[in-house]
Amino acid sequence: MTSGSDFTELERNAVYRAIYERRDVRNYRPDEVPEPVLTRMLEAAHQAPSVGFMQPWNFLLLRDREVRQRIYDHFAEVNTRAAEVWQDDRRHKYQALKLQGILDAPLNVLVTCDPQRAGEHVLGRFTIRETDVYSTCLAVQNLWLAARAEGVGVGWMSLMENEVVARLLGMPAHVIPVAYLTVGYPIEFAEKPLLSQVGWADRLPLAELLFEDHWGRRAPFRATERTELLSTPALPGVLEPVPEPPVAALERNRELTKPEGSLGQLEHLALRLCALQQTTHPSADGAHLTLFAGDHGVSAEGVSAFKADTTLKLVYGYLAGAGVVNAFARQNGVRVHVVDVGVDHDFGAARGLLHHKVRRGTRNLAREAAMTADECARAEQVGRDVVRALPELRVLALGEVGIGNSTSAAALAAALLSLSPDEATGRGTGIDDAGLAHKRDVVARALALHADTQDPNELLRRLGGYELAALVGAIEAAAERRALILIDGLITSVAAVLASKRTPAVASYLVASHHGAEPAHRAALAALELRPLLDLDLRLGEGSGATLAVALVRASCALMSEVRTYREANIERPERTR
Fold first, then answer.
1. Strand blocks (E) in 402-550
2. Cα separation of 28 and 143, whole Å?
3. pTM surpassing 0.70?
4. What does the alpha-carbon distance between residue 564 and residue 571 come to, in Å, rounded to a whole number?
5. Most buried pick, 40, 119, 218, 494, via CB within 10 A?
6. Would the pLDDT of 236 be above 70?
């Protein structure tokens, strides 16, 4: 029997996920943390338990570059002195621990403890005087876990002398600096803690630290697999279709100064946003494009007009803001996030790129399975993690890039939608008639090789790509966040078919941005029962059509927010037609 205060399985798993995936972050993107997100994090910190309810913490927010430069200079000087304590390899590892986050992160937070708060004889501090500091540490942990749940990174910078920092920041003499934190959106959340990753130390087994009844007496213990703690139930059990729009939104749309239904799909789009956001005045602020990049082994079959190294060159172009989709995104107020899931290239520390490479390109799907089960699952998780970390997400445009991916998508579309290779395969990057015939032959060979399964997940593994798998995960995560999802061309539409087969409710979150020129694209949209907003014969990919469609999404929001009703305009409402 459970009580009304019990967590659902999804809620419980989310708590464990935040705990297990909390990381000490050092490398940040320049994006500011939105005030609502920061407020939620600070409110979580303020909910920390404190002995005697003394609440001894304060939070000093540091944004000024000059102030942080002075702090950085002090940390750097202490770091140099501290490194001398260690010898050989540990000295080098110590010096490699990065302090740059103090300057790179958009925000630093100093959490302090006021031991005089609530008076000298506050409850619980009679014998253990340091309980106020312990309580403050709990506030730090609350802030850190809330940040991880928001996709925000936190780093704890401990190489400081308290009296120096207190003097630099004009703090009262009795207040104790406890935790100097860097805060911002990370380049990535590492799989392992930083000190473990650089070989400083590994996490000790809990069994070695667990005693029972008497110090040193081992307690019976069986380690719990992390997968048991983080076993997220399948989406079909938790994701609901988009609800109905609020009654007030339906009524407002009827009362706007226009003939009812005269704006066609724009009205449907506006009401879909009202339903997702449960408001009469929807917003398209928080519009993001996730552009997943990956290479395909099938390109060795000569299925593209471009060389295989084109993918990496295009990625560098996006990072420089010089791609087609960059231009469209700037025009329509869309933030672009370029994600390396499987490009056959080492990008090093390229700024602006989200580094989540699973492998340097898939295998040749015409000769073997494109991915292992583990690789496919990791790529899907990349998509989920990237979308879950997007700030203030309301509209997600989907994009991809990868030489060979139209062959992969055509093969998947044929298998999923019962199409022939001729019906599913188009010209992709612009191949001629001979190239098209060859590409169709490659798709036919792939379908014959993998004809022993009809399972969508297995088809994705065998015929898909890392960016395609990431798109499936991104779609699922965006639906979880109740975002409007704008699918683009063939590749994103095939990913949407896969996601909707796994979780039918996903389909209600999807909007088709355009009718593409690839034949399988139209078949995929028909299977999803989606009517595209645009028909421009696009076949570029990259999220170009989805990014263009954001302008229509913004127009639908303006319709609900800026157009007057008949009453507001003092116009007599026409009688309804019979």
1. 484-487, 510-512, 514-516, 534-538
2. 17
3. no
4. 10
5. 494
6. no
Instruction: Decide: 188 and 111 in contact? Cβ < 8 Å.
Output: no
* Residue 332 contacts residue 411 (beta carbons within 8 Å): no
**Mean pLDDT for the stretch of residues 59-68:** 94
Query: Shortest CA distance to 248 belongs to which of 555, 560, 508?
Result: 560
List, in order, residues 6 or more apart from 357 with CB less than 8 Å away.
340, 341, 342, 343
Query: Which whole-number Å values give the CA distances from 135 to 125, 176, 178, 272, 313, in the listed order?
Result: 11, 13, 11, 45, 51
Note whether 399 and 550 are within 8 A (CB). Answer: no
Chain length of the chain: 578
Query: Distance (Å, rounded) from C-alpha 531 to C-alpha 528?
Result: 9
> Would you give the DSSP letter of residue 276?
H
The one catalytic residue in 542, 568, 572, 575 is 542
Structure-block tokens of residue 439? 């590409």
Question: If we measure between CA atoms, which residue out of 59, 275, 73, 92 comes closest to residue 177?
Answer: 59
Q: Which two tokens stand for residue 429?
A: 């990057």
Residues 292, 399: Cα–Cα separation, whole Å: 6
Tens-place pLDDT, residues 300-356:
998 888 888 999 999 999 999 999 999 999 999 999 999 999 999 999 989 899 999
Is 161 one of the annotated active-site residues of the chain? no
* Spatial contact of 259 and 573, defined as CB atoms under 8 Å apart: no
Could you tell me whether strands 107-113 and 176-184 are parallel, antiparallel, or unpaired per DSSP bridges?
antiparallel
- Are 273 and 243 within 8 A, CB to CB? no
Give the count of beta carbons closer than 10 Å to the beta carbon of residue 57.
26
Strand partners, 181: 109, 156
Beta strands 353-355 and 395-401 are unpaired
**CA-only gyration radius of the chain, Å:** 27
In this predicted structure, which of 117-131, 286-300, 301-315, 345-359 has the lowest mean pLDDT? 117-131
